[in-house]
Design goal:
It is built from 2 helices and no strands. The protein is an all-alpha fold and 92 residues long.
């Protein structure tokens, strides 16, 4: 019984590695081609237009926190530590 369970463990561990070896060689990143000067110029124009559009976005003046008026601005105060007796026992 132990041999059967050991063989099952070995087989279950080797099946994923075998499956990975059977996949065909697929190149997911084709060779990158360099851009022509016209394409580079078009990219530069698009990039400048993007930066200009970002400059047109107004800055946020007020906080967008909907709970801002509900919360208090002070930090919660910590509770005072309980006094201990000199003997170390807690008397009630």
């Amino acid at each position: 019984m132990r041999m059967l369970s050991a063989a099952a463990v070995v087989v279950s561990l080797t099946v994923p590695a075998y499956a990975q070896m059977q996949t065909p060689n697929i190149n997911l990143l084709p060779e990158t081609q360099s851009k022509s000067p016209e394409e580079k110029e078009q990219d530069a124009i698009k990039d400048r237009a993007y930066r200009d559009s970002l400059k047109k976005i107004p800055d946020a003046k007020a906080s967008s926190d909907p709970w801002g008026t509900v919360r208090s601005s002070e930090a919660p105060k910590a509770a005072a530590p309980a006094k201990k007796s000199k003997t170390g026992s807690s008397s009630q």
